[in-house]
Design brief:
Elements lengths: L4 E6 L14 H16 L3 E6 L7 H6 L4 H25 L4 E5 L8 E2 L2 H9 L3 E5 L9 H11 L4 E6 L4 E2 L11 E2 L1 E3 H6 L7 H9 L4 E5 L5 H6 L6 E4 L1
Parallel strand pairs: 1-2, 1-6, 2-5, 3-4, 3-5, 6-10, 9-11
Antiparallel strand pairs: 7-8, 10-11
Helix pairs in contact: 1-3, 5-7
Length: 235
């Protein structure tokens, strides 16, 4: 087994499944089953999930919403997704806990890194919601911050594509996939893996990122078993 403790970053958009909006219950169940398998392997799993299937602060700002309010709406969207995932995990018998970056008991407990680590060590899956609790930060930055705080071995970034390419593979048929890449290369090639703040935080704190396609059932286990199906980002 490669990793003892992981920070799993899930995309809000992926939760839409085939619907184009909201939460697809089948996709949610797939995620819950895969996370259950990881937990049964003895891997400590912390999760950050985006909110793009419900609301994006940046796109809200472009439609006239105040940026701060828009980002706060986005944070609440991540809490909705976290509660949905928590419910799906409970349904398959996985002990879990939702911690929120903003106080909102009884919806979730207020986040602290000590509490998160304590829960992870007790064998609970910990879902870290509400981003960083501050506007102007993405959930990618939230993932980097939380991954560093809970001392994860790696951030597993589950996306719709199977790794990092020289260009967007959905738009460019000649795009080449990287098996490994450095943080500096991502920056120099201007690749849109995560926003710059998130990438810099991971680089400076030596948190490797593994980008893979989470929407293919069974891929999370393949990554945890050491199969090279995505792209590893390191210093």
């Amino acid at each position: 087994m490669q990793f003892k403790r992981i920070l799993l970053k899930l995309s809000g958009e992926s939760l839409m499944g085939e619907q184009g909006y909201g939460i697809d219950s089948n996709r949610l169940s797939d995620y819950a089953e895969q996370i259950k398998q990881a937990a049964q392997m003895g891997v400590q799993v912390a999760i950050v999930i985006g909110g793009g299937n419900i609301f994006r602060g940046l796109s809200g700002a472009s439609k006239g919403f105040d940026r701060v309010k828009g980002d706060q709406m986005g944070m609440l969207a991540t809490v909705i997704n976290s509660l949905a995932l928590s419910s799906a995990l409970t349904a398959v018998g996985v002990k879990n806990r939702v911690l929120t970056a903003i106080r909102m008991e009884p919806i979730g407990e207020y986040y602290s890194s000590d509490k998160a680590i304590q829960c992870l060590e007790a064998g609970e899956v910990v879902i870290l919601s509400g981003g960083t609790g501050n506007p102007f930060f993405t959930t990618d930055t939230g993932s980097s911050l939380r991954g560093i705080e809970v001392k994860a071995d790696v951030m597993l970034k589950g996306t719709r594509v199977d790794g990092i390419y020289t260009a967007d593979p959905e738009k460019d048929a000649t795009a080449q996939k990287f098996d490994t890449i450095t943080f500096d290369e991502i920056y120099n090639r201007n690749l849109k893996v995560m926003d710059l703040t998130a990438t810099t935080m991971c680089k400076e704190n030596n948190l490797p990122i593994y980008v893979f396609n989470m929407d293919v059932y069974g891929n999370l286990m393949k990554v945890l078993q050491g199969e090279k199906i995505g792209t590893l980002v390191t210093r």
